[in-house]
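Sorry, can you check?
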Amino acid sequence: QVQLVESGGALVQPGGSLRLSCVASGYNFKNEGVGWFRQAPGKDREMVAAISWRGSNTYYTDSMKGRSTISRDIGKNTVYLQMNSLKPEDTAIYYCAISTAGLVAAKHLYNYWGQGTQVTVSS
């Protein structure tokens, strides 16, 4: 059974940083893509960044481009999202997800989802 567990969300002041982690279990990675998404209250879930598991290629959307870095540790089956210069509009639940279609941007192509971790940016 595939399980994705996100962690690292917290309350942080504007301008602060956080590193989110996503640990995958019960899954044998081959050529999948892993994405980080976020959903703010009353808004649609949107992609933040994605990474290919094997080639380590990355993709960033405009939502946090220049302020975030996605990376993965194959040995730990873990994907990270480093977020810097956080703003109040970054407040959301952050989710990681696996796409068997590889490194893709379309949300509907992600097959497995975690339960999310809350990030709140406020002074």
Q: What stands out?
A: The CA atoms of residues 7 and 21 lie 5 Å apart. DSSP finds no helices and eleven strands in the chain. The first strand starts at residue 3 and ends at 7. The chain has a mean pLDDT of 95.
